[in-house]
């Protein structure tokens, strides 16, 4: 290249650089009076390698949880865009969002797997997990909330608290997670702020702290008023393509709508009084310094008080917006950093015993064709580095981690280290599964165990490391099962490998072999869950399997309390085995024990039994729970008390288990049995003119109506219906997820047009045929159906 050409090229580069800088400066200067500009120019996309690595106090580990179609993924997409980590806004209907990267997710327009992304916002690092809203994938929500510090609950402002909202809220309550509420879809004609707030109070038994008032309603929704600062945030979108990066911030004055000023004034007064009732420090500040005029309290003091209320879980901040219309997401990001806790503000008793040593929890496993198993870890203490050995306390094994990655949906970036408080993705851990505790070495685990023992001042119980293992992920019992068969015996080994990999990824998937027929039984959380597993086996492992008829997982229980005794006397070779067992069984409330069975020993027997004998007795009891005396279904809701065990010398543990199992079977038969079936909590939204028809149909399905409520111009039926009556082959309802069919109430289409990106999957073709048969009944009656978790 000649000198002149080189000089010209250099000038072009510098010119472009200065022009870009000038544009940025110009744009910021123009925006400084009324507008606030978040993020960079659209062409400037941040790299994951440049994500901030701040002090632990500026890290936020949050999850997005909600009912189906409330806008979780759309909200996540806007967060990534406004923080500068994506170039364009993705859309769920177009199948191009960052967190919905599975083929099945993009075809169906729903979230199936939780996806983790990392980005920064105003010097804070946010590790976010987008969770599914469908009840079939409730385990994904459970294991995400297990490792998160805070959550954003997204609501459809026109529907308020819905069926699955109750389930995910209960999960967050169980893990004591502070939450922020986001009333999404404020641009819908039926959006109602007061209705949504009231539903949070009544259904969730929560204390909503309203921080924003919407400006306009329905299509005229243009922004919000911040009650802390009395400022109006307005998004003036000139077209549907406007991305909402820039919005006006203007202080309220007398020229604004008098009605809005009155509403804002009343709402701010109510906010100050509510926070004062919940926070003693703020109440003392008001009475001491602002007794003459509560409204004069500084916004920063009010914000600090709201943060204390949120962290103490005395109240939940409520914001509003419309993610799809690009309104209200930036204030939501500000609220996440302002009100949700940092990792060091969450107290984990076990972690303090590790001090500066590594302590992490594996909460999710994925399989990658090139990299092998990918394990997600939440780091509670210490530092994680690649090419180092780690110790798995649960497996009592040592593995070598080859690579360390920052998770960003399905695109990951390798990094040299990760500090406490973050979420990491590791490569090379082949034995680790969901719920395992990871430490730096066996010596570090032993040191932590000694510290724990010294702090408690008690004897060690249950082994050396039993009290330093982080609590794992609670896996629900499956409610559906069916047989699965390979196309030929030559594919049997491949199918077993695929099922093993899928079970490691998804602990809610259970696989067993029927002892009588030898068939492989697939057990899952629902019809969609099993269908997705079937589809993944075909796509990812190339096996065309055949599924048998779907069956509901029934259970058995007992009705009466019974005591019984049994003796086993066997001679095997020259060895005689004699054991006598006395026990009692009684029914217990299924809801109080979560559907499980209890085993207890008398105090006298507890001190006499050797560890090996006690384990044999427990194995015998557990084996009897697997098959009930009536129809052979698993038993639950039973408390077993082992009263006495007499063993002659030389009796093997296997004979003890056999005697206990035989005695249990005898007791279960004497106690009288009862079959339990899963029941689904159902919410149906229907026009009042068709209420009687829907009630009649529910009665035919053995449903019980709990309540009938009014919502706008419709009626909402709350009912419980046996799960067996709600299967696809028998269902007369259009589920909320099936809005892809674009059916409108009262309109009978002659042709069904599916969105092009969904393709012609087998499931949609079956739905297509079913709707042809039922459309005249469906479209004139039911508008929306929501399902919550299964009840046994």
From TrEMBL:
UniProt keyword annotation of tRNA processing present: no
Annotated catalysed reactions: GTP + H2O = GDP + phosphate + H(+)
Keyword annotations from UniProtKB, A to Z: GTP-binding, Mitochondrion, Nucleotide-binding, Protein biosynthesis
GO cellular component: mitochondrial matrix
InterPro entries xref list: EFG_II, EFG_III, EFG_III/V, EFG_V, EFG_V-like, EFTu-like_2, G_TR_CS, P-loop_NTPase
Recorded superkingdom: Eukaryota
Keyword Nucleus attributed: no
BP terms from Gene Ontology: mitochondrial translation; ribosome disassembly
Pfam family, one: GTP_EFTU_D2
SUPFAM superfamilies for this protein: EF-G C-terminal domain-like, P-loop containing nucleoside triphosphate hydrolases, Ribosomal protein S5 domain 2-like, Translation proteins
Domain Tr-type G: 57-344
GO MF assignments: GTP binding; GTPase activity
Listed name of the protein: Elongation factor G2
Organism of provenance: Amphiprion ocellaris (Clown anemonefish)
